[in-house]
Design a protein that fits this description.
By secondary structure, the chain is mainly α.
């Protein structure tokens, strides 16, 4: 009876592990989609709004979800305090503070770091081109990850349940 309870708990744990991994994959795709929306919003604000950078970031933060909202608020505060700072370097420093909270792959994180360069360009056209290129790259990454999602989901479930099955065999 005790071994049966142990077997059930092992299978429950392996199912929980599979669920956790699948939720992590889904969260990664969701956060990349939120980043794509953020870049589109930055493109719109840069194109049509002629307000100072800290104010622009504050407006963007009002329409974003976590963790991007906190990132934009922090960037706005630091750029307001450090008016003479190098904007791209300051943006990279702020993004580095939020790297742990951002559950995105390296490619998407590199796109986020490049967004800081937009704020230093004097030409509106070059800023918009960089944002459009960033959106395209990020959309390709999202498409690739979404295509792999179903296969990885099956793989994670199979591996977790197989590990649980092997542990049950060792228990018996």
């Amino acid at each position: 009876m005790l071994k049966l309870a142990g077997c059930l708990l092992i299978f429950a744990a392996s199912g929980g592990m599979a669920y956790s991994l699948v939720v992590g994959l889904h969260s990664q795709i969701w956060q990349m989609e939120r980043l794509l929306h953020l870049i589109a919003a930055i493109e719109g604000e840069v194109s049509y709004c002629r307000c100072p950078l800290p104010e622009l970031l504050l407006q963007l933060a009002g329409h974003q979800q976590e963790p991007y909202k906190k990132l934009l608020l922090q960037a706005s505060r630091q750029m307001e305090d450090n008016k003479e700072a190098d904007i791209p370097a300051l943006w990279q420093e702020i993004c580095g503070q939020f790297e742990k909270e951002l559950d995105i792959p390296k490619e998407a994180y590199q796109v986020l770091l490049r967004v800081g360069e937009v704020f230093s360009y004097t030409s509106l056209e070059s800023s918009v081109q960089l944002l459009q290129f960033s959106k395209k790259r990020l959309a390709e990454t999202i498409e690739c990850r979404s295509a792999q999602y179903a296969d990885r989901k099956k793989l994670y479930c199979c591996l977790c349940y197989m590990a649980g099955f092997c542990a049950v065999i060792l228990l018996l």
